[in-house]
From TrEMBL:
Protein name listed in UniProt: Bifunctional oligoribonuclease/PAP phosphatase NrnA
A GO molecular function held by the record: nucleic acid binding
Coiled coil: none
Domain DDH: 15-155
Lineage: Bacteria, Bacillati, Bacillota, Clostridia, Lachnospirales
Domain DHHA1 intervals: 232-315
Organism: Candidatus Lachnoclostridium stercoravium
Record InterPro entries: DDH_dom, DHH_sf, DHHA1_dom, Oligoribo/pAp-PDE_c-di-AMP_PDE
Amino acid sequence: MSLLEEKLQGVKTAVILGHIHPDGDCIGSCLGVYNYVKDEFPGIDINIYLEPPAEKFSYMRYFDEIKTSLPKELPQADLCICLDSGDKDRLGGFLPLLENAKDSLVVDHHITNIGYGRRNVIAPDASSTCEVLYDQVLDAEKISRETAVCLYTGIVHDTGVFQHSNTSGKTMAIAGKLIDMGIPFSDIITDSFYKKTYVQNQIMGRALLESVCFLDNRCIFSVIRKRDMDFYGVTSKDMDGIVDQLRVTEGVECAIFLYETAFQEFRVSMRSNHIVDVSKVAAYFGGGGHIRAAGCTMSGRIHDVINNLSLHIEEQLKTASSL
Ligand code: 5GP
Ligand code: MN
């Protein structure tokens, strides 16, 4: 019996939650489990609650069934399944659904996850929550083609199309099994990962144009202000990929991308190549993530935010060079 099947014994109502600003792995894992339960356990009343997901993911079945606001009367689910959310706070406005549920299952791959569920499956070595689902939570034999599309999406997004250091032989083997199910793997990658709208390209161009190198060109940062976001008509959902483009600048170890969410409040995304553990830097400022990809929210003037981050990065670079 798969772990999910075990947890679903006697369950009549279930809810699935992910993290705020849901990304490909979050949406893929939530819709993956949703599709699986709909296929295999049709008697269970199950709902997904997420912040509004990007339209580019609408090829996944049941995308339109995602609920984006809390119901007026808070339901008490028999089981709450939290996916890809490194901590409770990242569940955002949907946290009450977890607190009110009778039982909970947390599935994640964030190294900073302390295990806030009744049952926790946390695999920091896994590329993505979708990989953990395939490997440890679902019965591979019972995964439908529609579920496979969702899981493949999550793996593709969190590995940056099998590029990041979190990609393992196991990741590739699982992706291979999903491909063998006949999913449109090429379209999934093009349409959900590489394709950009015109304004998304414009805002990325603007960010690259205004980027600044520091710490002897080993770091690079760029900031997009609220007024620029308004000018181009973009939202947080349009910022995907900017920090990854900064990271591949020749000679750069660490890339930082900030965008303003309110007056003197910034979402921070960090990436590193070989040395800096950005999850440590992010965790220091109340965020989290992975060694090579992490984020947090910071307040203050841009100059101070960059200076504060820079101090931590410089310290890690110094320690590494003295080893
Ligand atoms: P991104 O830079 O793409 O927003 O995030 C990179 C990684 O760090 C993702 O795995 C994301 O889930 C995680 N992350 C980003 N921001 C936060 C945060 O504020 N708190 C925690 N715990 N993790 C974060
Ligand atoms: Mn993930």
